[in-house]
């Protein structure tokens, strides 16, 4: 009688329950709101309260503050990447696509990412690196397409756009976020108009590149 060897059954890892995924999304959304309003040091208990979940649920999903901050940063970057992709595919006007991305990025409060990425934050984490790479690639495509169409001035780069969006969507010191919001898109459009070709003036300094932002 010939012995047969049974093939081991490979079991798939169980998918997270729908309610668990919803709780995680609520935590990230609440954290994004509160980090924007109060900064990255807001108590995690307060985030749990706003998300409508228990403290244990927060810590089950995010073992420490850095893990939650990283998830918020990645989620904001992922949504801006999605906006860039949609703009790239849905409009034939290259500069209009760039404008749509910039205004969406402002709505996503990318300015709030700057103080959240502190010296103790792991900026080389694989998740963050991947989100950053996707953002840089798609925004570069938007800018290249606008430049090839003769709509974007030649002396600006990725860093110029992202620094401008971040600065213009950050409320001035001592100004309530909500009261400053009504000015953001007006001033952002003024900035974007300044990036159009033909250039009406000569810019000081040199174009800000991706490498400049990482230094």
TrEMBL record:
Q: Which InterPro entries match?
A: Homeodomain-like_sf, HTH-type_TetR-like_transc_reg, HTH_TetR, Tet_transcr_reg_TetR-rel_C_sf, TetR_SbtR-like_C
Domain HTH tetR-type: residue ranges: 21-80
Source species: Streptomyces althioticus subsp. attaecolombicae
Q: Which UniProt keywords apply?
A: DNA-binding, Transcription, Transcription regulation
Name the SUPFAM superfamilies for this protein: Homeodomain-like, Tetracyclin repressor-like, C-terminal domain
What residue ranges does this record give for the DNA-binding region?
A: 43-62
Q: What's one Pfam family the UniProt record gives for this protein?
A: TetR_C_43
Protein name listed in UniProt: Helix-turn-helix domain-containing protein
